[in-house]
Design brief:
Elements (H helix, E strand, L loop, with lengths): L1 E4 L12 E5 L3 E6 L10 H6 L4 E4 L6 E3 H10 L6 E3 L6 E6 L3 E5 L1 H8 L4 E5 L4 E3 L4 E7 L3 E3 H11 L5 E5 L3 E8 L1 H4 L7 H9 L4 E9 L3 H13 L4 E5 L10 H7 L3 E5 L10 E5 L4 E6 L2 H4 L4 H10 L6 H5 L23
Parallel strand pairs: 14-15, 14-16, 16-19
Antiparallel strand pairs: 1-4, 2-3, 5-12, 6-7, 7-11, 8-10, 8-13, 9-11, 17-18, 18-19
Length: 340
């Protein structure tokens, strides 16, 4: 790359895009990388402030920003992300399908620390829809050392820094507990909320059992749904510390492995997560807040369960920072700080 006067650049090849910015009208390239400069282009280049122009010269140890941008993009994306056209050393990634967006924060930080390149992304562990923007990558200078891009590849390792996990199809069983519902004293207003949230995913509800506060009855209902082929069990009610709230005991008595009873999230502190059997079938105990609060711990955990993640206690523990829903008058979840 060499710098020369614009008036003397006729016949030379541009080594980068030339952007024109007219406030309120346009911000786009008037000339693209590789354009051969003509006599009539000179006034246009001068009008966008280019008294001097960078001309491309091949160098065996250097990469043009667009070539390097492709390398940076490749170390970021997995199979379910669509890259934009490279433009001025920048490539953006968008989702090709609905799913759970994952970020390896340590490797992302390590690549960004190399300098002369950047990767910016939305938070990880969030649900995204097809077409959503996920990340952007850019090379800062017009040319960059090949060796530096090799270091970026080594730093990132063999796996992509980002992963988009498509949602799985699941068969769900719902267990509603509580004497007040079982004996018809009040209407079950919890189950409709659960069905509505499940409708956002590819879920078939194959059974709904209504139980009293008898923990043996609840255990039997869970096992019945498991035997029917459910690969997701949701239990509503009976999750507080009151002596007659027996759902956690009932879940434990199925033989399921309890991951956590309690989560650092508000609303949702009394949440329970367990896994049943070798197939790691999720069994969740949902606190009453899921019925009346717009967003709760259930909204943070369900996308990860639907993407096939097997969560451990430390995954729930990390939710403490960002685990306070601010109950905004207009809810923008997941485009907010809740759970991040």
């Amino acid at each position: 790359m060499k710098l020369m006067k614009t008036e003397e650049a006729v016949g030379q090849i541009l080594c980068h895009d030339i952007t024109q910015i007219i406030r309120g009208v346009t911000k786009d390239a008037v000339f693209r990388k590789g354009h051969v400069i003509r006599e009539e282009d000179i006034p246009v280049l001068l009008s966008v402030g280019k008294d001097h122009i960078y001309i491309w010269e091949n160098h065996e140890n250097m990469l043009h920003e667009n070539e390097a941008a492709q390398i940076l993009c490749d170390i970021c994306r997995n199979d379910h992300m669509r890259p934009s056209e490279v433009k001025e050393g920048k490539i953006e990634l968008s989702a090709e399908c609905a799913g759970l967006f994952k970020v390896d924060s340590e490797r992302l930080k390590a690549v960004n620390s190399l300098g002369e390149m950047m990767i910016a992304a939305r938070h990880g562990d969030v649900p995204v829809k097809a077409g959503d923007k996920l990340a952007g990558t850019r090379i800062i200078p017009l040319v960059i050392e090949k060796e530096k891009m090799e270091r970026a590849k080594e730093t990132a390792g063999e796996k992509p820094i980002f992963e988009l996990m498509p949602y799985l199809k699941k068969k769900a069983g719902i267990v509603t507990t509580g004497n007040e519902v079982f004996y018809g004293r009040i209407e079950d207003t919890f189950t409709p909320v659960i069905r509505e949230k499940l409708s956002e995913y590819d879920v078939e509800v194959i059974g709904h059992e209504v139980c009293s506060d008898d923990h043996e009855q609840i255990t039997a209902a869970i096992r019945k749904l498991l035997d029917a082929g459910a690969d997701l069990i949701l239990c509503t009610g009976g999750m507080s510390v009151d002596p007659d709230d027996r759902t956690p005991l009932a879940i434990r008595n199925t033989g399921a492995r309890i991951v956590t009873y309690g989560a650092p999230v508000l609303p949702g502190a009394m949440f329970l997560l367990a896994y049943y059997g070798d197939r790691h079938i999720p069994v969740m105990g949902l606190p009453g807040c899921v019925m009346y609060a717009r967003r709760t711990v259930f909204d943070l955990v369900l996308p990860r369960i639907m993407a096939g993640e097997v969560l451990e206690k430390q995954d729930l523990d990390r939710l403490g920072e960002g685990g306070l829903c601010l109950s905004c008058p207009v809810c923008t979840f997941p485009n907010c700080g809740f759970g991040k």
